[in-house]
Design goal:
The protein is an alpha/beta fold. It has a single domain, classed as Leucine Aminopeptidase, subunit E, domain 1, CATH 3.40.220. The protein is 42% helix and 18% strand. It contains 10 helices and 8 strands. It has helices at 5-28, 30-39, 68-75, 103-109, 113-118, 121-129, 167-172, 178-198, 218-230, 251-260, and strands spanning 41-43, 59-64, 81-86, 141-150, 154-162, 203-206, 239-243, 268-272. It has an 8-stranded mixed β-sheet with strand order 1-4-5-3-6-7-2-8, sandwiched between helices. α8 packs across α9 and α9 (218-230) packs parallel to α10 (251-260). It is globular, with a radius of gyration of 18 Å.
């Protein structure tokens, strides 16, 4: 057997489990899927957001070495909570049915999210595929309220489905400079925070957005989030959780370091777990 046989065996098994999960969610949670799909909002770069307004005396920042599903289990109740889905721009659930296991696929494997996103193939994903913007994509997103999640207990959590700029693709085909990628990244992150603010989210679960195969630098992503949360979105949210599994990529350590340095907003509490 080839060198990657264990990977492909694992991927094949995950694909089988994904298909079984999708069928199970469709069978037992069709009401939730239909309701969430009906209430899902589509956001584009033409949407005009109201100005951000501080809602609390402080915003607690938590950088924790856990995955997004674990963060949902821990932080989604009782306050209004949303999680950022580091989404595929082109396909609902990314490679979920093919057995991939990035952040979006892990969210789908523990929820009705894939079933919901699949309902937007024609009026969202198909349109996205017509305009890839050289791999940097566009400011487009879905906001899905009260998606059912299951872990050690049942939870309902809002989901912001938005793709980061794919710098790996843009760089590979010479479609964007580093400066152009940074500009798109800043715009995309502000777009995500505006969506959360627009929907009155109190607890916001984020992470190393685009820092996997999309090729974004974790230190830069962390700094862009920090700049926004200390300025334009200062104290807009009650709690912001950066859920970043600790691994060889060093993303957790990079986020931790950025948030530890130069905390200029004295009304923010940095909680390193």
């Amino acid at each position: 057997m080839g060198r990657n046989s264990f990977y492909w065996t694992g991927k094949s098994q995950r694909a089988k489990e994904a298909a079984e999960h999708e069928e199970q969610m469709r069978k037992y949670y069709s009401e939730n899927i239909s309701r969430v799909a009906m209430e899902t909002k589509i956001y584009s770069e033409n949407f005009v957001f109201d100005d951000a307004v501080s809602k609390s005396d402080k915003c607690e920042i938590i950088v924790e070495p856990i995955d997004s599903v674990s963060a949902i289990m821990e932080y989604s109740a009782p306050s209004p909570t949303a999680v950022l889905n580091f989404a595929s721009y082109k396909y609902p659930g990314g490679g979920f049915l093919q057995g991939s296991r990035a952040q979006e696929e892990c969210l789908c494997h523990k929820s009705t999210l894939f079933n919901v996103l699949s309902k937007f193939e024609d009026n969202y994903y198909a349109e996205n595929r017509k305009d890839l913007n050289g791999g940097l994509y566009r400011n487009k997103a879905l906001y899905s309220p009260n998606v059912y999640f299951r872990g050690y207990s049942a939870r309902f959590c809002d989901v912001i489905t938005c793709a980061a700029p794919n710098y790996s693709v843009a760089q590979r085909y010479g479609c964007a400079t580093k400066e152009e990628n940074s500009k798109a990244l800043k715009s995309r992150i502000e777009f995500v925070l505006n969506i959360a603010k627009e929907n009155e989210v109190e607890n916001l679960i984020l992470g190393a957005f685009g820092c996997g195969v999309f090729g974004q630098d974790a230190a830069e992503v962390a700094q862009v989030f920090k700049d926004n949360l200390e300025n334009k979105f200062k104290n807009v949210f009650h709690k912001v959780i950066f859920a970043i599994p600790q691994g060889k990529d060093g993303n957790y350590e990079k986020f931790k370091e950025v948030w530890r340095q130069n905390m200029k907003n004295k009304n923010q509490k940095y909680n390193k777990k």
